[in-house]
Write a structure and sequence with these properties.
This protein has 341 residues and is an alpha/beta fold. It has two domains: 176 residues, Rossmann fold, CATH 3.40.50; 137 residues, Nucleoside Triphosphate Pyrophosphohydrolase. The protein contains eleven helices and twelve strands. Helix 1 links the parallel strand 1 and strand 2. The longest helix is centred in the middle third of the chain and has 19 residues.
């Protein structure tokens, strides 16, 4: 009996272009079925990831014939910022779709340092496709979100983006979300002009009281209305734990003394993935301040650069992934074990 061949193509596809289309055409030529692994799924939008995974699925399908659409499976995978967990999630998801006996071939091209994942699956055959020159999703996003007129931007993108995807983008640009993405894109560009060092340090405070965790709802200009762990930039001469406590008090008016917070310090972890923040290289030291059950939760109020401070039961967090800022869902998962792998 002939084994089914399944091609796997991995990417974020944050604006599908002709170079990515070439990968899929190669995959369809090699295999009976194709699995598109959609990275950076479930998270909130940001300038590097302006399209949610359902929108990216729609762009991918727009580029395919009806027969190819029937052969395509889409596998959304979240960012873990942990290669072992990410590899396991991809492997398990592909196996569930393809079956245990399928012949798996990983289709990709060696683009840059972000293509290292191609070597993470040694049990799968590998098929490299020559990369189309001068086609880059980052450049396409810059054109699309920095132009005064999205229709003019799409005209400029004609040599690099297919007509069906341009039509999809044109319709999407009429939605309010396009204006929000443009504003945040501009805010991030201004932020990077101001903060030009190789990296910056921040301190974050994960505060739990029994089964509740304290989060803040952000003001603009980026991540507006998203929930986040309290925290912020390290001041000159300041210890990281002092930074986390200071930011916690400034943002939430947390009523307990710093000495009480220090006594409750339960764990510390560094989060330093180069892609964890669209703002640039931000390395954060997250501190878990763990308190037992109290008769009433400490009273908090949003202040400084946040709109609101609020306690959430830990059981609410799993459904909030797309409402959390940057990698804060991953930070919470590290301390509170939210993700059921």
């Amino acid at each position: 009996m002939t084994r089914k061949t399944v091609a796997v193509v991995v990417g974020r596809w944050q604006l599908v272009h002709l170079g990515q289309e070439a990968l899929f055409q190669a995959a369809f030529g090699l295999a009976d079925e194709v699995i598109a692994v959609l990275g950076s799924s479930y998270k909130a939008r940001d300038p590097r990831n302006p399209f949610v995974h359902e929108e990216r699925r729609q762009m991918l399908l727009a580029d395919l014939t009806p027969a190819q659409q029937q052969r395509l499976h889409v596998l959304p995978v979240r960012d873990y910022f942990d290669d072992q967990r990410w590899n396991a999630a991809v492997t398990m998801g592909v196996r569930a779709i393809a079956g245990e006996d399928a012949d798996i071939v990983l289709v990709g091209h060696q683009k840059d340092h972000t293509s290292y994942y191609l070597n993470n699956f040694p049990r799968w055959r590998q098929q490299l496709v020559e990369r189309l020159a001068d086609v880059d999703a980052t450049a396409m996003r810059q054109v699309f979100f920095e132009a005064d007129d999205p229709d003019a931007a799409l005209t400029v993108m004609t040599p690099y983006v297919s007509a069906p995807v341009r039509a999809w983008l044109q319709a999407w640009s009429r939605l309010p979300e396009y204006r929000r993405r443009k504003a945040e894109h501009a805010a991030i560009a201004n932020y990077r002009k101001k903060y030009t060092a190789v990296a910056y340090m921040t301190g974050d405070a994960v505060v739990t009281v029994g089964d509740h965790v304290l989060l803040v709802r952000r003001k603009g200009p980026f991540g507006e209305d998203l929930w986040a762990v309290p925290g912020g930039h390290l001041d000159r001469g300041e210890k990281l734990v002092a930074c986390a406590i200071r930011e916690l008090i400034e943002e939430t008016q947390f009523p307990l003394l710093p000495s009480s917070l220090l006594a409750a310090l339960h764990g510390v972890e560094t989060f330093e993935d180069p892609l964890r923040s669209a703002r640039g290289r931000l390395i954060t030291m997250a501190h878990h301040f763990k308190f037992g059950e109290m008769g009433t939760l400490p009273e908090v109020v949003g202040s400084d650069d946040v709109k609101e401070a609020r306690w959430f039961h830990r059981d609410e967090l799993a459904a909030m992934e797309s409402q959390l800022f940057e990698d804060h869902f991953v930070i919470l998962d590290h301390f509170l074990n939210i993700i059921d792998d």
